[in-house]
Design goal:
heterodimer; A: 3 domains; two-stranded antiparallel ribbon; 5 helices; 2 strands; B: 126 residues; alpha+beta; 6-stranded antiparallel sheet; 4 helices; 31% helix
């Protein structure tokens, strides 16, 4: 039997060991179990007891491969956990940073320059508000101009239609 | 765990992709280059989630030309644009949608002077 042929799960192996200890296995089955236990890396109280009764020790190769596998899975899990924690930390720091930026930046901010100099705080608010009003007036005026244009276009189309 | 990491990575990438600053040419004019210019009056405000910036240019055709060029660069991105020359001077208006919000850009030119502004919700500029 090749090592690759041994594909028993831990539960199945334990079940076989229990049957062995209850003396319910045939001689042939016991031999096979002995072979299997010598090859498989599984370890549990039941399996170890069966091994002890059989006078078996787990093969170094199997033990090594089991150790390697467990180290591999452990390191993979550790990397995954570390990566997740890092991502969460970055997200947390970013959110906290944004929040602190918002806290440091007051909800209202006014900056103004005139004649090549920064304007005083009081004057700044006045200047900005006046300019914002100008922008509002500009947009209202544009809206008015657009509707005027639209009316003119409509009149033109109506006139053309009437003439036809 | 692997799926969780992939999910988080995708979530962050999509969030980054969703909110993108518009990088308008008109915005670049507010990098402080005219702060010491005597013929320019600059006003900037951020309040109630709105962001407003404007320049008042008095008798400085060079700067007005630069603004016009910037507006021409941004014009293809406008969902709506309007231009008219009338009694109050020459009016140019652009409406640009960014991050689902509207950015209003306006330029009024009159007698060698101009008023130029860009405004919209803060979200539009992030």
């Amino acid at each position: 039997m090749k090592e690759q042929d041994v594909k028993l799960t831990l539960q199945e192996t334990e079940q076989l060991c229990r049957l062995y200890m209850d003396c319910r296995l045939s001689v042939l089955e016991e031999t096979e179990l002995q072979y299997v236990l010598g090859k498989l890396p599984y370890s549990s109280p039941c399996i170890d007891e069966a091994r002890m009764l059989m006078g078996l020790t787990i093969s170094k190769k199997a033990l090594k491969s089991s150790k390697n596998k467990s180290i591999f899975w452990r390191s993979r899990a550790t990397i995954s956990i570390a990566a997740s924690i890092t991502i969460l930390l970055i997200a947390g720091i970013t959110l906290f940073h944004n929040q602190s930026i918002n806290e440091h930046n007051p909800s209202e901010m006014y900056i103004a320059y005139a004649d090549g100099h920064k304007v005083s705080q009081e004057q700044t608010i006045r200047q900005v508000e006046a300019d914002m009003k100008t922008a509002e007036d500009f947009l209202n005026h544009i809206e008015e101009l657009e509707s005027q244009e639209q009316r003119m276009v409509n009149n033109f189309i109506n006139q053309i239609s009437a003439e036809q | 765990m692997k799926h969780f990491i992939i999910f988080l990575t995708l979530l962050f990438s999509s969030l980054t992709a969703m909110a993108k600053p518009p990088h308008l040419a008109a915005e670049q004019l507010f990098d402080g280059r005219y702060n010491t210019e005597k013929s320019v009056r600059t006003s900037i405000s951020k309040a109630d989630g709105f962001y407003y910036r404007s320049l008042h240019i008095t008798n400085n055709p060079g700067i007005i030309k630069i603004i016009e060029t910037a507006l021409k660069k941004d014009a293809p991105r406008a969902s709506k644009s309007f231009e008219q020359e009338g009694e109050g001077g020459r009016y140019t208006s652009l409406k640009i949608i960014s991050n689902g919000e509207t950015i209003d850009i306006g330029l009024q030119q009159y007698n060698g002077s101009a008023f130029f502004f860009i405004k919209g919700k803060e979200k539009a500029f992030k």
